[in-house]
Structure formats: C-alpha cells, structure tokens
Amino acid sequence: MSRFLDDDFLLSTDTARSLFHDVAAVQPIVDLHTHLRAEDIATDRHYLDLSELWLAEDHYKWRAMRLAGVDEQLITGNAEPWDKFQAWAATVPRLVGSPLYVWTHLELRRVFGIDLPLSLLTAAEIWAEANRQLPRWTTRRLLEHFGVRVVATTDDPGDDLAAHGRIREQAGASLSVVPTLRPDNAHRLLDDPPAWCTWADRLAARCGVAVEDLASLEAALVGSYQRFAGLGCRASDHGVTCVPEVPADRRLAGAAVRAVLQGRAATAEERAALEVEVLSLAAQLAYEHDAVLQLHLGARRDVSPRLGAALGRDAGADAIDDVRQAPGLARFLGGLETQVRLPRTVLYNANPADNALFAAMAGAFSRPGVASLVQWGPPWWFNDHEEGLRRQLADLAQIGQLGGFVGMVTDSRSPLSMTRHELFRRVLCDIVGTHVQMGRIPADRPWLSAVVRDVCTANAARFFGVAEVVP
Q: Does domain 47-136 have CATH number 3.40.640.10?
C-alpha cells in the first residue's frame, strides 16, 4: 500500500504523529519573510489559470525546467499558459527526491484536493480540475485556508506602500500584512550607474530627499524606514554575499555614491564600504525601533551571463558562494555589541557548509532579558528541503537552542508555498519524537507540546513583535 504523502508521512513515531496532528498542524502561520505582493493581498487577486498562480514567478520551478532542457519560451517567455504547464508537468517526474516534488503534490492536495502524481499523462486532468476550482482561490482565500495570521512582504525603500495602507484600512481583516525594508539596491546596483541613479531618483521622489551624496542617501533611507514603521514594519532585510571584513569607512562609502552619480561604477573597496554603512544604519534603526535585522548571506547571484543578458537580474540563475563568513560577521556584530546597539538579529546562510558556523556565531551574542538575541534563522533557499531542515534542526539543537528557534519562512512569491510550513512542522515533530523514542528526553506531553507550539508560531511572533495579532 502506497504511503505517498499520507497523513503520517515523515512521522516515524507515535509521539511525532501525536505532536504533529494535535499540536503543530493546528498552529497559525506567522511567515516573516516572503516575496508576496501586498497589491495581490489588497485587491484579493484572482488568477487566470494554474500556470499564472503556479509558474509565473517561481524561480525554483524555472531552474528545474531549465535543467530538464525546456526552452526558455516555455519558462519565462510568452508561450501559452497550457504549454508552460505541460512543460512543467513533463519536468516533475525527473524530480525524484527533490523538495519541488513534495511541494508540488502537497499544493495540489491541500488546495485542490487532487491526489494524482503530476506527469504528462495526468497533466490535462489536473489542469482542468484545478482551473475549474480556481475562481474561488483568491490570494486572501488561500492565505486564510492555510491559517496565515501574519505575513511580511519584502519591499524596496522607494516603494509607495499604498497597498499596505489599504490592507490596514480593510475592516475585519484576520490577516496582518507588514512591509519589510530591503535596501539592497543602494549597494547592489553600484556596478550599473544608470540603474542606480534611476533607483535613487525613485527613492528621492518618495522620501522628498534628493540623493546627492552619502549623507542624503542615509537621510532618504531613514525616512523610508520611518515610513515603513508607520505601516507596521518589524524588520529590515539584507541580501549580501558576506558582511565585508573591513572597518567602517565613510570616505570610501561616500566615494561610491559620488562615483555612480558621475556615471562611474564603484570599485570593490567603495562598494564594500557602502555595504557596511547601509548595514550599520539598518542595525541602528532596528535597535531604536525595537525591530529586527535580517541578514541573508552566502548566495552568489546571477552567475549565468546568458540568462543575465536575456532576462536581467533574479531570473533563477543563482548559486551557493563559498566566501568566508566568520570574520566580517564577527566584526560587525561585535562592533554593534560594543556600541550597545546590537538589535535582535536573524542570520540566514545559503551554504550548508556554514551551518555550524552560523549556529555558533548566533550563540556568542546575548542580552539579559532578551531570549535568543541573535538567531540562526530558518533554512533558506538551497537548504529548505527535508534533509536541509533535519541538518539545521540537529545542529541548532546541539550548538544553540532548538526551543528558542523562530521556525520556518516560505521566501516565496506564491501563496501556495505555505505548504512549506507543513513540511517543516512534520520534520520538527519527527525529530522531537525520535528524541523521545531514543530516551534522550522525557515523554512529557505538556512540555513537548509547548516546545512545538513555540517553534511553529509563538517564538517568531514574540521575536518580531507581532504576538498581539496571533491567537
């Protein structure tokens, strides 16, 4: 008898099954790092077909289809929706052991009640049934279906946030949607002066501060942070390869701004200096607003020149980097602690080789009265599969504190991806159940239930300061 995604998949002990079904599965979702669009939530977007909902912005699926040799026209091009879906259906049987295989079928089951394995043989039947149901699956309805209570979007400092304002005005909303400031373009675009200047002009128009030098750039970013905070922002987020292993140098950071304003790409040294200034400013603002600093580290982005030329940035041609993380991160966090300005911080690593490093680094910093001041964050990007979850939770338990963990995020552009929380919760309960079975911890049900509730929902709600909106 097949056990494919049955009620107890991944749950290998009685304790694990009980903890998942009775505790974890009924916890609301607090997802504090997504790339969902606030506009889709504000307008309660309807989707034209399954391809639009499922494939239009999912770079995980794009990557898998490219690896299968699918023509780009059927991935990000203007091919017909059915043709794109058929190309995805032809790719899925190749994904043996991939998280994409599990996510795909969890999404079909949990939303559409479809339990057929997706392939070319079943594509037409699945397409027809999902599209038949699709009119009732709006963005808000999907989030409500998954029990999402808090969701954070990721927003550029120059974004207008009008959709966030409309969401807050919608009476009776059971969903809290908060923006997250992502100021990466301040340093990420330094190799492309026209793009940087366009971004800076947009930021200036939004904040009313002309960006003419480093000081005015910082003033615009401070204004953006305050504007975001007024709409419930609880964090800034920063995607850098590593925290530069350099001391603060405002002269070099200022030179980076002058260079792009004059049409010259910034040097590597100037870019590193500006990265440090932006990160330091964000940390200061997080500390002053009792908010969170999130650092996504270790990705090497846009490595394919071919796809970069054809599609631009963020097209799914990214990889893991192997740069040294410890020196810059220790310097940065230690400097903030010396200044007594170290905020609550979440560290994400793309490279699994850095797992123990990040767990140990997070545990080196503390503040009396604040639990888990620096967190080794949720498994991210190349680590958010089952084995990555198990490795991270094992390292966290042995080097850090599993009971203080802030749980899972989707890092996704589709509301269907909330099934990733289910996969995480199943793995969590299986690990806890195995500890009980092996005699490592007692079978104390009230205590174990409290730990599971905390890791699934409560820790994140408390850490990010949104506990009041979670029942």
A: no
